[in-house]
Amino acid sequence: MSVEVSPNPETWAAYGQFQLDRSYMPPLPEQLRWGFWDGVGPGDDVLGPLAGKRVLDIGSGAGHYAVHLAQTHGALVDAVELSPTQHQRATDHFGDVPGVRFLHADVVEHLQQAQPYEAAYGICTLAGIDPHIALPALRDGLLPSAPLVFSALHTNWHGHGPSAAVAPREETVGLKGMEPLPLQTWVLTAQVWEDLLTDYGFTVEAISQLRAPEPDNPVICQLIQARRRAVLPTQITSRPRSQRPPVPHAAIGVGAIVLSDRGLLLGLHQRGTLELPGGSVEVGEPLEQTVVRELAEETGISARPEDVTLLGTIVDHVGDVVRVTVGALVTAWQGEPATQPSESIGDWAWWPLDELPDGLFECSAQILAAWRPDLPIDNPPAHFTPYARRTTPSSDSGSAGA
């Protein structure tokens, strides 16, 4: 729901004036601080490579984070701030910094006329705008596959947690020496944020909690990592290896998603399909150990069971045989993939997600479609049951050799 009258512009104008009156500017950070505490949570890396990219700073405040990204990473940042006093603080101190444009504007109105951005972020600011207004504007104002990363309040000083209703509530903002100011903000559960983002064209990659370092401090922030869903015109085909059903003892298997900055790892089967590393589960073998064993046997790379995240089961049938495939995400490994003697799959190669090949093995196609529904992969119908909703970054941020 929208509120017709919000105290937020007046609140941030008063807040900025208080800071102007005492001539305070925060120091330039060494990395982004998504919550209220130094050293808590990730830093700049969650936005991905930024050199030369157009980046939107939502509610840029004093401008120090925008300047940091421009100077440290070579980003081209549009720092959009509605409060005139906050905008004045930024321009007074950083107005001539190359790579940053400080814009005094409403971010929703700005997105209606701006060229689409390659990334966007907000540090405890985006939740001050009705998500039914902000999220569609961001969807239309970001390029396909562009990241949107933002933090939002989860639990306040009184231990009051998030709501499942998409409605604003009043919080306060203040500093030592000033009266607390009212602030309308949307304090929502992780599931509600995920549902809203999904409905408005984003894929949620991770939602994590940032907790105060002091054990008696109840304040918690959420860090939400999402990505504008890609719009690709063509479908990538998949096909079975042969017309024969799998033998019964081979009907339970695993497929491993191994993703590096070079792309997704796929190998060529002797029967012509391109597929993820994986294979059959041995009697009494934990699924994570199956993934580790098959990776070593098929590719020569090594991983640990604790580096394997099971995504869920995919159930379909081939002929009269019920086939169960478990998708898994490998977040760290060592070594370089190579063709192994006596294996039926080899010629391992890294494929960018936006350049996946035709001819995927149908089980691999089903796993990838369940993991990333935005990928344009045609695959046989199957029932996917996720094990748990992910709350840690996906393998988009994993790396080889960890």
TrEMBL record:
Residues 247-374 form the Nudix hydrolase domain. Coiled coil: none annotated. GO terms for molecular function: hydrolase activity; methyltransferase activity. Its cofactor is Mg(2+). SUPFAM superfamilies: Nudix, S-adenosyl-L-methionine-dependent methyltransferases. Gene3D superfamilies: Nucleoside Triphosphate Pyrophosphohydrolase, Vaccinia Virus protein VP39. InterPro entries: Methyltransf_25, Nudix_hydrolase, NUDIX_hydrolase-like_dom_sf, NUDIX_hydrolase_CS, NUDIX_hydrolase_dom, SAM-dependent_MTases_sf. This is NUDIX domain-containing protein. It comes from Streptomyces finlayi.
